[in-house]
Amino acid sequence: MSKIVRSWIVCLTASAIVSFSGAEAVQGAPLNKDQRKIISEIKRDLSKVASLSRSKKFDEAEELIKSAEEKLDNLILEAMLKDDDKIVIGQKKLIETKKKYLDLAKNPDKKKRGNMVSFEEDVAPILIERCLLCHSAAKPSGGLSLDTFAGMKKGSTNGPLLIPGSANTSRLALRVVTPDDNLRMPKDGQKLEDEEIGMIILWINQGAKFDGKSDEDKIGSSVDSEDEEDEEEKPKSMKEEKPVSIEKATGDETVSFKDDIAPWMVVHCVRCHSGETPASGFSLETFEKLMTGGDSGYVVVPSNPDESRIHQLVVKQDPIKMPRGQGLLKRKNAEDFTTWIREGAKFDGPDPQATLRSYVPTEEEKRAAELAAMSAEQFSEMRKSRSKEQWERALPKEQPAQIESSEFLVMGNVSKDRLQAVNDWADKEANSLRDLFKEKDNPLWKGRLTIFVIKDRFSFEEFNITLHQRTPPAEMVGHAVVTPHQEDAYIVVQDVGDSVTSESPGLHLIVAEQMTAALLKKKAGNLPGWVVQGAGLAVAARSGEGSEYLNGLKNSIPELLTDVKKPEDIFVDGTFSPSGTSAVGYALVDFLIKSPGGGERFSQLVGRIAGGDDTLAALKTVYQAEPAVIAQAFVSGLKVSKKR
Fold it and tell me: Which residue has the higher pLDDT, 15 or 246?
């Protein structure tokens, strides 16, 4: 571990020091509105201490802590609170935690610990500060929610987020290190610090282990010293504290809030002005909250732009203060905003309490609508054009040969005869997939499936590095990509030849495996790795392909199972390495397909998991047995097979 990363690890452990033991809290009289506002200010100020500490702005962090202490002391006197009042205990613990956090940031050698990275203490603070604005349960951009570890394990619409033990194949790591501004996260934000990236990579390589109380809790909650307030103690929303006047549009207005104002607010403003602690206490999550205003009061005065604080900040002030850290609005945006306020700041959306995001389509939603409107011929042409562009990006000096059929576009730097053979195998496997999963789509993928056939390892690695920002592990000889709405649908295979051994699967089996993975990814991006990888090998086995290689995989399973603590863990992602997942997944899927109910039951299992069911719950429902019992039967079957 580098000195920088070790220092960062030490700094980030501070929030775990405070003990939560002590006398039972006593709740005093409810605070009034102004007193609750002071509590909110204290929390908001203290929430900035960690960021300032990591940026080495120690004086500013100390000032915030000192200010928080003074505010709390004054509040105790004003509200006649007791030392054992719950709200006092909670705030004092929070202040104490931040003090020790700052102290360790300034003096990292004070506390030493081993090289293991803690998710709750080390990784969660980074995610909370840099990722939750866009990836919370309330705003799961791309279908990804990071506010619980369960959400992290589930991944997004693009597939799993974490491959424990392998940062170079984990999307979480890849998306924070990529030099491509269009792909790097945080989107449109400043790149993570090298120390933060190093922390995430080290945690993943150490197994991406969760050390909180429950993976359904908010991340970082096990080391958060701030007590939850009783429901009656929580500040009421500003909506409840003061009336909000909302006037519906008549249709005579020249500017529409829904079409002309809300879109740029969602892009430029909602990131900071949303969530439980929006900047300046001002939320733009809904139209109603826009009209409610923030800590300074109303920000929009209908018919009077000059008296509207938000108009001054966005349009009039020199320099313009909002949006902070973003490019200035376009001139038309500013003119529309002025006109909208002058015309009465009227609302023409479906519901003033609905989120602005809900009726402002994202770029992804716009693209999805465009794709849905395409004819089969247009989609096929788009697939051909995108595949050509992808090849030219990855291997610009290689001129590919190409074979087209109704189901497939086969492209590669091998001979046309080789491509034709791959196309023929693919046709055969497509029929097997239709039979197993009861698929009726023709073709199976919109616009056809592209099969990139690459002649050697060097070119295969170049393809992965250029298009996916990763160096594939040695055992990877193929992979599948199917994006939401199937804008991309392709597999990439390395031509390893036709000879099948215990070490080499042969090209036919690789094609069958990756086609199955592509079909399952078309169904859902949340399927566990053993289902995706195992189903492909099992489909190939049904057609008699790669038997020697597959037998070798099965023979490796007993050793892989030696470290499994509970039988049902074999169904949990992360239990095995990527190569181990292929071996166990193949044997598991083969076992399930050959069990009573066969392929139909397995297809039901895939459908349930794709629909959002937990893997273990889906197994229990479909096979009418506890997952542990199914796992034990699977292991017993392996022993019988081995004896024979």
Answer: 246
Final residue of a structural domain among 523, 557, 581: 523
CB atoms within 10 A of CB 504: 18
- CA-based radius of gyration for the chain: 28
Task: Kindly state whether residues 332 and 245 are assigned to the same domain.
Answer: yes
Say if residue 297 is in the same domain as residue 179. no
Counts for the chain of helices (H) and strands (E), in that order: 26, 5
* Triad 272, 278, 281: Cα angle to 5°: 130
Does the pLDDT at position 507 exceed 90?
A: yes
pLDDT, tens digit, 9 for 90 and up, residues 634-643: 888 775 454 4
Residue 450 CA to residue 440 CA, distance in Å, equals 19
Q: Give the type of residue at 339.
A: T
- Give the list of residues 6+ apart from residue 299 with CB closer than 8 angstroms, or none: 282, 290, 293, 308, 309, 310
Among 62, 89, 110, the domain-final residue is 110
Task: Give the DSSP letter of residue 409.
Answer: E
Q: How many domains is the chain partitioned into structurally? A: 5
Q: Following DSSP, what letter does each residue of 335-392 receive, concatenated?
A: HHHHHHHHTT--B-SS-TTSBHHHHS--HHHHHHHHHHT--HHHHHHHHHHHHHHHHH
To 10 degrees, what angle do helices 598-610 and 529-542 make?
Answer: 150
Q: Using H for helix, E for strand and C for coil, what is the string for 40-54?
A: HHHHHHHCCHHHHHH
CA distance 167 to 200: 8
Secondary structure class of 229 (helix, strand, coil): coil
**pTM of the prediction?**
0.55
For range 263-278, the mean pLDDT: 80
Q: What is the largest CA-CA distance in the chain?
A: 87
Q: Which residues fall within 8 angstroms of residue 540, CB to CB, at 6 or more apart? A: 429, 508, 509, 512, 513, 516, 546, 550
Q: Would residue 494 count as lying in a domain? A: yes
The residue segments making up the domain with residue 135 are 119-223
CB neighbours of 438 closer than 8 A, spacing ≥ 6? 600, 603
Taking a C-beta distance cutoff of 8 angstroms, is the pair 322, 280 a contact?
A: no
pLDDT digits (tens, 9 = 90+) for 432-479: 888 888 888 889 999 999 999 999 999 999 999 999 888 888 888 999
Q: Which one, of 522, 628, 622, lies nearest residue 572 by Cα?
A: 628
User: Dihedral through CA 447, CA 449, CA 454, CA 460, nearest 10?
Assistant: 100
Question: Which residue is associated with the tokens 């089996």?
Answer: 509
C-alpha 426/C-alpha 449 separation (Å) is 10
* Cα end-to-end distance, the chain, whole Å: 48
d(CA 119, CA 124): 6
- The three-point CA angle 104-108-111 to 5° equals 80
Order of strands across the sheet that contains 408-412:
401-404, 408-412, 449-454, 489-494, 478-482
